């Protein structure tokens, strides 16, 4: 299947040579080892911009991605050929905070288990703080690389490049791997680091590496336009793996002079692979190999790939740490207007008994139990939508201190009811579609339509209250 997307004018001036976007459901056998590679080739797996996404939450069907599935796919590919080079573009965590610190360590340990060769440092990695980055660089077997950041510290183990040696038949190929972060993506004044213009910092490295390597790959943590600029400046690169904000790898594969530029995708929902076949000589007679692209695949990580037990174990440890550190108690809370408080469903039931008894049998009422079943009841990111008022004072705190606020209660939609309980005023609690969409947003409830969904849970008519 050949797919060329032309509506993005930024890419128009470039010649899109070919795009072999093989979604693997049309190409299943290659993942199960029936196929043997016919020619000497270098195989690359590239991922990046996990942005804190560890695995599908299970909120809706057909969610893609996750580290446990990724590991299974990597293992299958390695069965076919052990010479895979795994590369990470950068940005393991999502936002700054304790939960993402633990996530970052968890993802890195997973990359370690999968035997990644290199992790390029992205701006989100840096924003977690140099101390954490240094610690992680010490405990991990994955090489941290950056060709254009001066970290100004001895503690951080980071290399400007690495060279991987790959044996193919009688030859040994030397693959140079470099990595940059676009200075535009980071404000380096707030950290004690210096991010240098990649065009400047790559020059001496490349003149040194060109003779020592056969193939050169750049992990370019930059907007695709900036990655293309680097490829135009340095045709020495055979392949540039780029970011940023493009959710699927592979789609915008382009060729710039002799360099392929390919985006990495987001949140690890797809796994990108590339096979480069080196030709023995260059047309200009120089010694380096000249590589050409034989295939690139974009593999959606769906339920065909079972969860790897080793990574599942890492994720269990992650949940345990959230519990041990009591992160749900550390959630940032905002105040409520005019001293309103959440009072819980039991109070509402006194006067709105019929609605309450109906609600008890909806899935909203058992939303907390859902988290218990999947072992996420200490995970603030899940608790937020599966309980009542987590991000407000007097809202859900822990199951012991606020048992009446578990699940999606009356006040999730109607707001804190302390005042209404006293006044029984009719102007309390207008609930409309916007309220639903706080939780039923696209990622967690892609099929949400107000009309259909409300019909499923519509309140019964209440008899005259107190009448
Ligand atoms: C932004 C709000 C939101 C967040 C955050 C969230 N969920 Fe959900 N979850 C929902 C909604 C809404 C549904 C119902 C979706 C639907 O049916 O359309 C749901 C459904 C589910 C279901 C399916 C229940 C069933 O019986 O089918 C599971 C399991 C689940 N969530 C687990 C989690 C876990 C685990 C997390 C944290 C990793 C999480 N959720 C985070 C909103 C959220
Ligand atoms: C002491 C009795 C009492 C309690 C407790 C109570 N309500 Fe009410 N509620 C009323 C009365 C009375 C009305 C007005 C009914 C009417 O005039 O139609 C009302 C009206 C409402 C309305 C409708 C407003 C409208 O648009 O007409 C909502 C929504 C509501 N209550 C939700 C709640 C929720 C949620 C709780 C618990 C947090 C709660 N109520 C607790 C008595 C109560
Ligand atoms: C505080 C977050 C939150 C809000 C607000 C919310 N929901 Fe939900 N909703 C959930 C969660 C979480 C689930 C899944 C519960 C489970 O099964 O564990 C869910 C499930 C449902 C389901 C069941 C889906 C199914 O396929 O059976 C319906 C229907 C629904 N919600 C409708 C609505 C409507 C309509 C609104 C707005 C009036 C709304 N929800 C507001 C969190 C929310
Ligand atoms: C998922 C969101 C949601 C939850 C949870 C919810 N409601 Fe409502 N409720 C609504 C919406 C939306 C309306 C407005 C319906 C309309 O305009 O037709 C409403 C209307 C009402 C009304 C006024 C109209 C009526 O049907 O009498 C009352 C009273 C009420 N809710 C009470 C409650 C009580 C009590 C609970 C908890 C037991 C509760 N609601 C839970 C969404 C919710």
SSE arrangement:
Blueprint: E1 22-23, E2 42-47, H1 67-80, E3 84-88, H2 98-113, E4 118-120, H3 123-127, H4 130-139, E5 143-145, E6 149-150, E7 161-168, E8 171-181, E9 194-195, H5 198-209, E10 215-221, H6 224-233, E11 239-242, E12 254-256, E13 259-263, E14 270-279, E15 290-300, H7 309-324, H8 345-351, H9 353-359, H10 367-374, H11 380-386, H12 410-414, H13 418-423, H14 433-439, H15 450-457
Parallel strand pairs: 1-15, 2-3, 3-4, 4-5, 8-10, 10-11, 11-13
Antiparallel strand pairs: 2-14, 6-9, 7-8, 12-13, 14-15
Residues 57-60, 370-371, 374, 376, 379, 381-382, 384-386, 439-441, 444-445, 447-448 line the site of one heme C (HEC).
Provide an overview of this structure.
By secondary structure, this protein is of the alpha/beta class. It has 2 domains: 13-315, Metallo-dependent phosphatases (Purple Acid Phosphatase, chain A, domain 2), CATH 3.60.21; 334-457, Flavocytochrome C3, Chain A (Flavocytochrome C3, Chain A, domain 2, Orthogonal Bundle), CATH 1.10.1130. The protein is built from 15 helices and 15 strands. The protein has helices at residues 67-80, 98-113, 123-127, 130-139, 198-209, 224-233, 309-324, 345-351, 353-359, 367-374, 380-386, 410-414, 418-423, 433-439, 450-457, and strands at 22-23, 42-47, 84-88, 118-120, 143-145, 149-150, 161-168, 171-181, 194-195, 215-221, 239-242, 254-256, 259-263, 270-279, 290-300. The strands form 3 sheets. It has a 7-stranded mixed sheet with strand order 1-15-14-2-3-4-5, with helices on one face. Strands 7-8-10-11-13-12 form a 6-stranded mixed sheet, covered by helices on one side. Helix 8 packs across helix 9 (353-359). The protein is elongated. The chain starts with 21 loop residues before the first strand and ends in a 10-residue tail after the last helix. It binds heme C (HEC) (4 copies). Residues 57-60, 370-371, 374, 376, 379, 381-382, 384-386, 439-441, 444-445, 447-448 line the site of one heme C.
């Amino acid at each position: 299947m050949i797919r060329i997307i032309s509506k993005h004018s930024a890419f128009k001036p470039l010649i899109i040579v070919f795009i072999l976007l093989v979604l693997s459901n049309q190409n299943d056998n290659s993942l199960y080892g029936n196929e043997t590679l016919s020619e000497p080739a270098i195989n690359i797996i590239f991922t990046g911009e996990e942005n804190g996404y560890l695995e599908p939450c299970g909120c809706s069907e057909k969610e893609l991605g996750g580290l446990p599935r990724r590991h299974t796919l990597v293992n299958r590919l390695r069965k076919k050929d052990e010479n895979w080079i795994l590369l990470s573009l950068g940005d393991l965590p999502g936002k700054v905070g304790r939960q993402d610190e633990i996530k970052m360590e968890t993802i890195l340990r997973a990359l370690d288990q999968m035997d990644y060769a290199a992790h390029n440092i992205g701006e989100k990695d840096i924003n977690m703080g140099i101390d954490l980055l240094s610690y992680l660089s010490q405990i991990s077997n994955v090489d941290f690389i950056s060709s254009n950041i001066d970290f100004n510290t001895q503690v951080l183990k980071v290399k400007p490049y690495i060279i991987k040696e790959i044996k193919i038949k009688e030859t040994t190929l030397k693959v140079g791997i470099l990595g940059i972060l676009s200075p535009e993506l980071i404000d380096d004044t707030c950290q004690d680091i210096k991010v240098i213009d990649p065009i400047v910092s790559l020059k001496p490295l490349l003149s040194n590496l060109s003779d020592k390597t056969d193939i050169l790959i750049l992990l370019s943590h930059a907007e695709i336009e900036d990655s293309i600029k680097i490829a135009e400046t340095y045709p020495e690169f055979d392949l540039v793996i780029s970011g940023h904000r493009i959710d699927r790898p592979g789609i915008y594969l382009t060729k710039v002079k002799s360099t392929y530029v390919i985006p990495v995708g987001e949140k690890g929902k797809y796994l990108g692979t590339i096979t480069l076949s080196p030709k023995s000589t260059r047309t200009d007679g120089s010694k380096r190999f000249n590589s050409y692209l034989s295939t690139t695949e974009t593999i959606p990580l769906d339920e065909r790939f079972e969860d790897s037990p080793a990574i599942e174990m890492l994720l269990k440890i992650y949940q345990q740490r959230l519990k041990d550190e009591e992160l749900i108690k550390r959630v940032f809370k905002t105040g409520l207007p005019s001293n309103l408080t959440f009072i819980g469903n039991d109070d509402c039931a006194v006067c709105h008994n019929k609605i309450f008894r109906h609600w008890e049998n909806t899935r909203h009422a058992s939303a907390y139990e859902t988290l218990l079943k999947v072992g996420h009841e200490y995970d603030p990111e899940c608790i937020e939508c599966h309980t009542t008022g987590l991000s407000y004072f007097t809202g859900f705190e822990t199951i012991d201190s606020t048992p009446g606020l578990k699940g999606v209660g009356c006040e999730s939609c109607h707001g804190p009811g302390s005042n209404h309980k006293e006044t029984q005023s009719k102007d309390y609690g207008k609930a409309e579609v916007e309220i639903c969409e706080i939780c039923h947003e696209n990622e967690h409830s892609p099929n949400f339509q107000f009309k259909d969904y409300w019909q499923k849970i519509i309140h019964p008519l209440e008899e005259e209250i107190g009448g």
